[in-house]
Every structure is written in C-alpha cells, then in structure tokens.
Amino acid sequence: HLFKGLVNATRADERASEFMLIVSPFLIGQLYDSSRLSDPGLCIEIIKTLVLFFAQVSPENQTAMLTILVPIFVAITPSASPALKTVLGQSLMHFAQSAAPAFKGAVQTLPAASQQALQTAMREHMAAGASQAA
To answer: Is the confidence at residue 22, as pLDDT, over 80?
Structure first.
C-alpha cells in the first residue's frame, strides 16, 4: 500500500513504473536505515535520487508521492547530521516551491505534531541559509 503511491506517481511510462516498483521499497528502507549512520553520504544520495524521481511525477500524482516522502523526511530530520539536515531542508523547500498544491495536500495529511516538526525544520533551514548568506 505504501509504495503503491510511488508507483502510481510515475508517468504512464511502464518502464518508469516498473523501476519505481522495484527500487522504491529498497530506497525508502535504506533512507531510514542510513539516516542513523554517522556518515550521511548514502542518505544524501538517496534523497537526491528521490527528488529526481519526484521531478518525473505527473502533477496529478505529486501529492501521492509527497504523502510518502514528506513524513519520512520529517521523521529523520531531528536526529540528522548538519549536512543531512541541509539536504532534507533543501528538498522540502524544493517540494514546497515547485509543487505547492501537492505539498500543501501532503502536509494536510500529517498529524499535528508532524506538521509542527515540518514547520520547525523548514524555519531552521531558512535561518541557516540566511546566516550563511550574511
């Protein structure tokens, strides 16, 4: 059920859907597991891959994919290393800016505590970006 959203989120290309069906459970599992490692390299690459997958999603299916990705990104952010937090923040901001209606729809499905954690993570990311720019 969880990965059905990722599969359905791909465009009509059968090969893309098949690839998502095969790879998504592995990527999501690796993302969660690697988020606990001291070296965030693997986790960062998985996030970049998922963001690239998202770029191929048709607009009508973006909410389905974000309904899966946003909660996972929010869950791993509090304990993430600074480098990983940066990539997670960039990814969440990218989703919010490039697919605002879908992002809003996905956020609305989150429990209140997760919505608060998301707001905190995005504020921290924006504050970190502002302090680096100064």
So the answer is: no
- The C-alpha angle with vertex 5 and arms to 112 and 104, in degrees rounded to 5, equals 40
The answer to whether the CB of 81 falls within 8 A of the CB of 40 is yes
Rg (CA), the chain: 14
How far, in Å, CA of 22 to CA of 28, rounded?
A: 11
User: Among 16-20, 28-32, 118-122, which stretch is predicted with the lowest mean pLDDT?
Assistant: 16-20
**105: Cβ–Cβ under 8 A, 6 or more apart, which residues?**
63, 66, 67
Q: pLDDT (tens digit, 9 = 90+) per residue, 61-96? A: 889 889 989 999 999 999 899 999 999 999 999 999
Q: How many CB atoms sit inside 10 A of residue 47's CB? A: 24
